[in-house]
Write a structure and sequence with these properties.
The chain has helices at about 5-15, 15-25, 45-55, 60-85, 95-100; strands spanning about 5, 35, 40-45. It contains 5 helices and 3 strands. It has a 3-stranded antiparallel sheet with strand order 1-3-2. Helices cover about 55% and strands about 10% of the residues. Helix 3 packs antiparallel against helix 4 (about 60-85). It has a single domain, classed as Multidrug-efflux Transporter Regulator, Chain: A, Domain 2.
């Protein structure tokens, strides 16, 4: 999966950075994916699909539904990949707390 940084994403959809974040806030574009401590981007296929929907004249309501579906697809793909790992989901097995995650409450 290729992740596009902000400049590439805004260039592909033809909006400014603030315009992109306005679209995210209104549910018309997917949320960015963290790629590091101070970096994020968007899956290329999501950017291309949203741009194609706009070019096809899809309504704003349909774009919002598409965005919801793309967010759900991210989670479903993650779960599919986890199911291929022996031991399954490290979060469900309680490993998340040992990795520094969890509730944030010290024990």
């Amino acid at each position: 999966m290729k992740i596009l940084r902000g400049a590439e994403t805004t260039s592909r959809i033809g909006v400014s950075r603030s315009g992109l974040y306005e679209q995210i806030a209104t549910g018309c574009f997917t949320r960015p994916v963290k790629t590091g401590l101070r970096s994020s981007g968007w899956p290329e296929h999501e950017v291309d699909l949203i741009a194609a929907a706009r070019a096809a004249g899809v309504s704003i309501d349909e774009i919002k539904l598409l965005v919801e579906m793309l967010h759900e697809a991210r989670q479903m793909r993650y779960r599919e990949l986890l199911s291929d790992i022996p031991g399954g989901d490290p979060c469900a097995a309680g490993h998340y707390d040992s990795l520094g995650g969890g509730s944030g409450v010290s024990k």
